[in-house]
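User: Could you check the structure of this?
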Amino acid sequence: MTYWYTALRTFDKNRDTTGASWDSYITWSRLSHLTEVVSLDGMLNESLVHPDYDNADDWDFIGVDGIYQTGFFRTVEYVLEKKELTDKFNLLAVVIDPTQDCKDIELEGFEFVGYELLDRYYDISALTNCGGFDEAFLPNDLNTFGLIDDYEKAFDIQKRLHEKYPGVDHADTNVIAVWRHGMIGR
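Assistant: Sure, the predicted structure tokens are below.
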């Protein structure tokens, strides 16, 4: 498996990054059990990594899937070097479309927090930023971070999104395993 890294702004009751309040988000999303959104969604958890796209060397670190930039990077060192200064953030490690259950995989300093379903453009979370896809999953299918705990369930929901919502861009997703660093950024 290939591990990628990123640093994202936090979104919880103490940090409203969407321009709306946490309470408004919880009401709109119907995800009343969340304690924090640990999403790869660029609107909810803004990227803090700012590569120099004019520097050819930076492209050695930028994750690209086909024609889409993923927002992920090859090394933790690169992420920390290019990260905007902020006091609190989520340093994440991810695997795109993992081929095995990741909950027991240990990455030094990181804790597995769940599976994200990010649209094929690597922009929007089908889980936390689409207002709900009730024919594919319900709010109680998500953990307190807005992610899916179970590997098989993540791929089952991905399949149901595709079947129940054909032609809906944000329902055409990648399953992404997510680990959060326990010390850096916390």
